[in-house]
Specification:
This protein is 34% helix and 26% strand. The protein is of the alpha+beta class and 373 residues long. The relative contact order is 0.11.
Length: 373
Amino acid sequence: MKSLKISRVDGFKSKPIIASSTSSISEIMGILKHTNAYEVFIQEGDKVSIITIREILKVADISMRASSLMFYIPKLSPDDTVGKAAGLMNDYRLRALPIVSEGTIEGVVTVQSLCRALLSVRTFRGVKIGKMMTRKPITIDKGEYVSKARSIMLKNGIDHLPVLDSGMLCGIITSNDIVLSMFPREGIERGAFVSAPSSHLDIKVSGLMDSNALVCDPKERASAVLKRMTENEKTYYIVHHWREIQGIVTYRDFAFFLAEPEKLDIPAYLVGLPDDPFEAQLARIKFMRNAKALRKSFPKIEEIRSTIRTRDISGSRCRYEVNVLIRMAGEHYIYSQDGWVLPSIFDSITDKMMRLLTKKRKKWKRNIRRRFP
């Protein structure tokens, strides 16, 4: 894993899809449809911008120019590492980054190409998909309108929505499905300047979803699921067990393992990591990522410390108890959570801390207003 992280991105580059800032959004959509891509790059001087499928979800008038929708992104040099690329993709929620040499885009590195390289990592082969999935994914009912699905995706920065029928999985709808269906098909194919959205946003999700959603069992090997994703050119798998959705995995979940460690401007300690190297890596990634999110929401946090204890062992499974101590403004706050899967414990405990600290902050502000009306 370490050797992959320090590898040069130059060895993973592919041909970039370049567009002009003067192109219309409808023309950009035509390019994306024709190339089966998620993003296009635009270069103006020494700056590089991007337009993604998720950004196009925002527009109501596709005759507008690309310049109104594009946004600047970080650039990579051929000497940059896979770890740096994966970290930037995670931070900016991107699937690709440009490789720029001598002021020109010479290639692009995609999250798919980086994740394919994971298949050759020996320590990755024994990891179960249930340990790395995103738990409790946001879902939508098949009776809702496509316009609501679009709003959910934009609000949460996601591209995949499992669809439910009476609480049971019946399909999936993606940002790509919506973008390529929300405007007249002939307009996309010819790159015509079509300004009026079609009625596709006003139909039910059931009329646009893919009823053959890809599913896997939480006990499946992550490498096997990733291999199927890459071979079938898909971007997700829904983790499903006993007729219930357990989670979802996308390339972003796999890219976590490749990203350079998060850096905090305060002391952050993690004690008691398990012996299993991949389990320890998962725990470390989750702890640092969640600590960064807490620090961003509560700038007064001065220190975060977490202790992991193994309570008992059942067969090959360990039950963990996690304690997190936060020092903030001269006070200490301690939170505890136990369970079988470390990454999910850290997610749960972070959610709990967010809620409780937010309540304390609101109470503190109310007291200030009472003292100084």
